[in-house]
Amino acid sequence: MTIAANQEPDLVVLYHKMCQIRRMEERLEELFKASEIYGSLHLCIGQEATVTGACAALRPEDYITATYRGHGATLAKGTSVQAVVAELFGRETGCCHGRSGSMLLTDLAVGNLGCSGIVAGGIPIATGAALSARLSKNNRVALTFFGEGATNQGVFHESLNMAALWKLPCIFFCENNLYAEMTHISKEASVERMADRGCACDIPGVVVDGNDVEEVYRTTAQAVARARAGQGPTIIEAMTYRLTGHMFGDVQTYRPKAEVESWRARDPLLVARRKLEHRGVKRGTIEEIHQRVEAEIDEAIAFARQSPEPKSEEVSRYVFCEPSANGRV
After folding, report:
1. Nearest partner of 172 among 232, 228, 110, judged by Cα
2. Treating both helix axes as pointing N-terminal to C-terminal, what angle do 283-306 and 268-278 enclose, rounded to 10 degrees?
3. Which of 33, 144, 248, 326 is deepest in the core (most CB within 10 A)?
């Protein structure tokens, strides 16, 4: 998924990743209905372009944090489909050995410092990671995904101030899907652009079409280059829309049907597919992508079903720090 600096992304590769995220989410919904997976389920259907485009602009060693709607971000940063699906099945082969479930996906091997069920919970973690990158001079950046509702949290503004004051290599990436749970952002924010909320800290903010994966990539790549150059943080506000409810079972009476349908016509997968066809990519090639993705999801589900559950005697493993042979933690 990672693309070399100053290189335009391959839309075919980005489209494949978005299709992979979409089909995984759709299949997870089916599995949840069939009671094969449990707990909460917050799907990112309709928001595939934000995480795919943003993570494509990062290096493998760069950091991210994400929200409870983090399945897509986890895949986009490099975790395998098998590891994500197995985690939701609660299996030992999951990316967190079956301990995290849907809302807390984490994979340190690819720089994913964790998804969080706490609104704005990942923002200070990413800010801290950016501080560590600056102090160690390892040229890494940290990108934190959050919803527009999180911009009302105090920790968001505290993190902005710290990142601006110390010019930390941090990208604050707002996935604005218009609704914080069931409340429209116009009823809870005094500004129209969440990107403007960094003005008090002199942080530049930019608004981008969050359903255009290439535009998201280019915008994020510019923010990443700025951060690596020591020029500090950027706020990116990606305008997008979740095509499902806030969580499984949400009847969505708060959203006008016409609004949903207007956004459905701007589905990020449709936008990317139209671009591919316009550029001469044959429909057969696109269908091959769909077939390959379907096979990948089938294999991941089979892998999860066949994987072992964590051992009952290891219920506290990975929860508490364990001392090493010399007694140190």
Report:
1. 232
2. 140
3. 144
- pTM for the full predicted model: 0.94
Read off the pLDDT of residues 128-143 as tens digits, 9 standing for 90 and up.
999 999 999 999 999 9
Domain ranges for the chain, please list them: 11-308
Show the 3-state SS of 73-119.
HHHHHCCCHHHHHHHHCCCCCCCCCCCCCCCCCCEHHHCEEEEECCC
Dig out the tokens for 259 from the structure: 């609004």
The phi, psi pair for 141, rounded to 5°, reads -125, 160
Helix, strand or coil, per DSSP, at residue 222: helix
Q: How many other C-beta atoms lie within 10 A of the C-beta of residue 155?
A: 16
User: Quick one: tokens of 6?
Assistant: 């100053």
Structure tokens at 186: 């116009």
| CA distances, 283 to each of 15, 279, 291 (Å) | 13, 11, 12
Rounded distance, CA 65 to CA 129, Å?
Answer: 10
What gap in Å lies between CA 26 and CA 72, rounded to an integer?
12
Q: What is the pLDDT of residues 103-122, one digit of tens each?
A: 999 999 999 999 999 999 99
What's the rounded Cα separation, in Å, for the pair 9 and 230?
A: 24
Provide, for the chain, the percentages of residues in helix, strand and coil under a 3-state DSSP scheme, each rounded to the nearest 5.
Answer: 45, 10, 40
The partner residues of 184 in beta bridges, in order of sequence, read 179
Give the CATH fold of the 11-308 domain. Rossmann fold (3.40.50)
